[in-house]
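Incident log, structure service

09:12 report received: a user says their structure output differs between two submissions of the same chain.
09:20 pulled the input from the user's history:
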Amino acid sequence: MTLPEFHSTDRIADPRCGSKPSSIDPACGAPATWHVAWKLTPGDAHFSLLCDLHLIKAQANFVYADRHPATITCDMPGTGWLVADPSRCVLATTDDATAQAERRRS
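09:34 re-ran on a clean worker, output below:
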């Protein structure tokens, strides 16, 4: 599977495109329209927030596991990826064991 280079970003509840041409370049910063799960393997999951333009570029060059429209919840600390149809981000809680079993930390 071909994956992009990953970079850490702070969660600020303002979903912005994190695409970067290289590790020394600034992130795109445009409003994110997509939340992409590159890998959903527990303990080794990778996610990105992307604008429409960078999603098109990603689709041409990489393989991802899942995606859904980006929302504020996607950029909140403590959110999880709910594997469903359609997938979405949910706030992780300790009192919802069923949902936790289905979600993979983002």
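09:41 both user submissions now match this output. Likely a transient worker issue. Closing.
09:42 reviewer note: Residues 61 and 95 are 40 Å apart (CA to CA). The mean pLDDT is 84.
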